Each structure stands twice: as structure tokens, then as C-alpha cells.
């Protein structure tokens, strides 16, 4: 029995089978875009009245900008998914046979939305309460548990395909068992924080999320046309298209000169969405390829993220009013006060010329923050 109904389309001398749910999903995603375009400007006054605002340090006038608009985009995204959920199962509803209903696919949608909703809640709490860094590590892990439970009950495949360069030594694949679930949990934590780390410039968070989302959509389409794991990649598309539509509307108002700030809500929402499609779509390792800039930035930021080097809460670029340009932000510390790992990181980064630093006569070092 086919879960996704499709019809044939003839184009450029060839034929393509387009699932009807995919067409409905595109329509809903387009609607999400236009709803966002109209709703976001109307919500600005409400956020300012609730004191959800921040100062735009990238502008000379330092205006007050409404913040945490990721929650608006998140709500539009979730409502789009709510409206779409019945569509892939319409054929099963009409049959009336509960035993043949694809509960395993239905549960994937529910688990995906549950994890995404949890991260929207965490992000909004962070915007309002300024959570500690340790909270941003274990809460995404807890939010990923529904995904891991569904993966265990539906698939429970913990075998990874090894690169061809090592296959002659250890074989084509290896079963890593429980470690695969540890990896997926760490993937969820990384994705939700990676976009949050690479931020601070008007439109940067939204733009990089759109690039990743677009890459995933193109990858899914190529795999579907190739006939590989069609249902898994269709599931990914059904989540990524509404996300892209809602996010594209947000980008219109968040790009420079920014009219709204996205807040941590959007960063966590985006990261968990990418983790969801990667885990339940069975291409979690491929998703990491689309995070290469974020991975580089994470590795570069490790000395400050793990407090080997003093790290300010915000590492925003500093605006120079004279030139109207942005300069890299700086941190200050004494090398003598660092622990062994801090001193080692400082010496390695200094001699590798990965940081620009100046040392005063009294031993105070001024250098750029460890972020690209």
C-alpha cells in the first residue's frame, strides 16, 4: 500500500511523479511566507510594549529594536505543519482500516513537532530569562529524546557506512550500537547552538539558516529524483519547505538595516529543525556537511566556549561611528591568570596567527574574541 499518492507530470520531454502532498505542502509554505510578511510588522509594537527589545549596536543611532521574533516565525511554522499533517494520510482515512494506518510515519511527524516546540519554548525562555550556558547544553539533549525514541522504535539502525579509504582494512560498515544514539543527541545539541554562536550581525542568523535549509531541500530533491529512500526524503521536504517559507519572510525584516531581531528562539528553532530532518530522514551525517562554516567557527571558539580564555556573554562586532564600519570585538585577560589549557590555547592561536593580540607592559593581553 502506497503512503504518498502521486501523479505524473510531463516536462521537458520527461515524466516526473509528484506526490500530491508535496504540492499541498508547497501551497502551505507559500501561505506561511505571506502570513509572515503581514504579521511581523504588525507585532512590532506589541513586542516593544512587552519590553522585548534590544539596542542595535550596528547602527550609529543605536535604535531600540523589537526582539525575540523567532517565536512569531516558530508559531507560523508549527501552524503550517499542523495544517499539513492530515494531508499525507488522507488515503488512509478514506479506507477506514485502522490496522493499515501508517502509525510509524504519523508518530514521526508528532515527535518532530514536539522536539521543535520544546526548542521554541527554550529559546523564548532564554530571550526572557537569559539562561546559563549549561542550560543550553542539557535542555536540547532532553528535547531530542522524542526523536531518539521514535528512531529506536521505527528503525534502530546503528550501522554506519565507512569511507572507501578504510573499507579495505575494517570492512564497509560498522555497528556502533548505543554510541550512535549518543552521536544523534550530540548532533541535536550542536545544531541548536551552532547558529546561535555564529551571530551578531543583522540578518546573519536567518541568512545562514536559509542557506542550510536550501541545501537540504536541493539534496532531498536530488535523492528523490534518483529514487533513493523516497519516503524519508519526502518527510524531510514536508518539514523544510514550511520552515523555509516562514524564515524567508523573517529575513525580509531582519536583514540590514534590521527592523526586528530574531532572538535565541529562532536559533534554537532552526537548529532543532535541521536535527529533526537529519535524524528522522536518515542523513544526519550529510547534514553536518551543510554546517561546515558553523563547525569551523565552533572549533575556533572552543577556547572561549569552555572558558579556557575569558569570554564575554556577547561577542558582537563593535561599530565605529567615525567610519560607520564594524570592527571585531575584543577581550582582555592576563596570561598569568589562565590555567594550563588556557595558556596552551593562547600560545597555539598566537603563533598560528589565528588571533590579533597586543600585550601591555603590565601583562594585560588584548585580543579579538575567538569567533569568525
From TrEMBL:
Q: Which Pfam families match?
A: Glycos_transf_4
- Judging by the UniProt lineage, the source's domain of life is Eukaryota
| Gene source species | Aedes albopictus
Q: What is its main location?
A: endoplasmic reticulum
Keyword Glycosyltransferase listed? The answer is yes
Q: Which GO terms describe its biological process?
A: dolichol-linked oligosaccharide biosynthetic process
Query: InterPro entries per the record?
Result: Glycosyl_transferase_4, GPT
Its keywords, alphabetically, are: Endoplasmic reticulum, Glycosyltransferase, Magnesium, Membrane, Metal-binding, Transferase, Transmembrane, Transmembrane helix
**Cofactor(s) this protein requires:** Mg(2+)
Its annotated function is as follows:
UDP-N-acetylglucosamine--dolichyl-phosphate N-acetylglucosaminephosphotransferase that operates in the biosynthetic pathway of dolichol-linked oligosaccharides, the glycan precursors employed in protein asparagine (N)-glycosylation. The assembly of dolichol-linked oligosaccharides begins on the cytosolic side of the endoplasmic reticulum membrane and finishes in its lumen. The sequential addition of sugars to dolichol pyrophosphate produces dolichol-linked oligosaccharides containing fourteen sugars, including two GlcNAcs, nine mannoses and three glucoses.
Reactions accelerated catalytically: a di-trans,poly-cis-dolichyl phosphate + UDP-N-acetyl-alpha-D-glucosamine = an N-acetyl-alpha-D-glucosaminyl-diphospho-di-trans,poly-cis-dolichol + UMP
Top EC class, one word: transferase
The way this protein sits in the membrane is described as: Multi-pass membrane protein
Q: Which protein family is named in the record?
A: Belongs to the glycosyltransferase 4 family.
Q: What is this protein called?
A: UDP-N-acetylglucosamine--dolichyl-phosphate N-acetylglucosaminephosphotransferase
Pathway this chain belongs to: Protein modification; protein glycosylation
Sequence intervals crossing the membrane: 20-40, 68-86, 106-125, 137-154, 178-198, 235-253, 265-283, 289-309
Q: Which GO terms describe its molecular function?
A: glycosyltransferase activity; metal ion binding; UDP-N-acetylglucosamine-dolichyl-phosphate N-acetylglucosaminephosphotransferase activity
Localization per record = Endoplasmic reticulum membrane
Q: Tell me its EC number(s), please.
A: 2.7.8.15
Provide a GO CC annotation, any one: endoplasmic reticulum membrane
Amino acid at each position: 500500500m502506497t503512503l504518498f499518492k502521486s501523479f505524473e507530470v510531463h516536462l521537458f520531454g520527461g515524466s516526473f511523479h509528484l506526490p500530491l502532498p508535496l504540492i499541498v505542502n508547497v501551497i502551505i509554505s507559500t501561505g506561511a511566507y505571506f502570513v509572515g510578511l503581514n504579521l511581523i510588522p504588525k507585532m512590532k509594537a506589541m513586542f516593544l510594549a512587552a519590553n522585548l527589545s534590544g539596542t542595535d549596536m550596528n547602527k550609529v543611532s543605536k535604535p531600540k529594536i523589537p526582539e525575540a521574533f523567532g517565536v512569531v516565525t516558530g508559531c507560523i511554522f508549527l501552524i503550517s505543519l499542523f495544517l499539513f499533517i492530515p494531508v499525507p494520510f488522507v488515503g488512509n482515512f478514506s479506507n477506514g482500516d485502522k490496522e493499515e494506518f501508517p502509525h510509524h510515519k504519523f508518530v514521526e511527524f508528532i515527535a518532530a513537532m514536539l522536539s521543535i516546540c520544546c526548542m521554541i519554548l527554550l529559546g523564548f525562555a532564554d530571550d526572557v530569562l537569559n539562561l546559563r550556558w549549561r542550560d543550553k547544553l542539557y535542555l536540547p539533549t532532553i528535547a531530542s529524546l522524542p526523536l531518539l525514541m521514535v528512531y529506536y522504535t521505527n528503525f534502530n539502525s546503528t550501522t554506519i557506512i565507512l569511507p572507501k579509504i578504510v573499507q579495505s582494512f575494517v570492512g564497509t560498515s560498522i555497528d556502533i550500537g548505543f554510541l550512535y544514539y549518543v552521536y544523534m543527541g550530540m548532533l541535536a545539541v550542536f545544531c541548536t547552538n551552532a547558529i546561535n554562536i555564529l551571530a551578531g550581525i543583522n540578518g546573519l542568523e536567518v541568512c545562514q539558516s536559509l542557506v542550510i535549509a536550501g541545501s537540504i531541500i536541493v539534496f532531498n530533491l536530488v535523492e528523490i529524483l534518483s529514487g533513493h529512500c523516497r519516503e524519508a526524503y519526502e518527510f524531510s521536504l514536508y518539514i523544510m519547505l514550511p520552515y523555509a517559507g516562514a524564515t524567508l519572510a523573517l529575513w525580509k525584516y531582519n536583514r540590514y538595516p534590521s527592523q526586528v531581531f530574531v532572538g535565541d528562539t529562532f536559533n534554537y528553532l532552526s537548529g532543532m529543525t535541521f536535527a529533526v530532518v537529519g535524524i528522522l530522514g536518515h542523513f544526519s551525517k550529510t547534514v553536518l556537511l551543510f554546517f561546515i562554516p558553523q563547525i569551523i567557527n565552533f572549533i575556533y571558539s572552543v577556547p572561549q566556549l569552555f572558558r579556557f580564555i575569558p569570554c564575554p556573554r556577547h561577542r558582537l562586532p563593535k561599530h565605529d561611528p567615525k567610519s560607520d564600519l564594524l570592527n571585531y570585538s575584543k577581550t582582555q585577560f592576563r596570561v598569568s591568570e589562565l590555567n594550563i589549557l588556557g595558556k596552551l590555547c593562547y600560545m597555539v592561536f598566537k603563533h598560528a596567527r589565528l588571533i590579533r593580540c597586543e600585550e601591555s607592559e603590565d601583562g594585560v593581553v588584548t585580543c579579538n574574541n575567538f569567533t569568525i
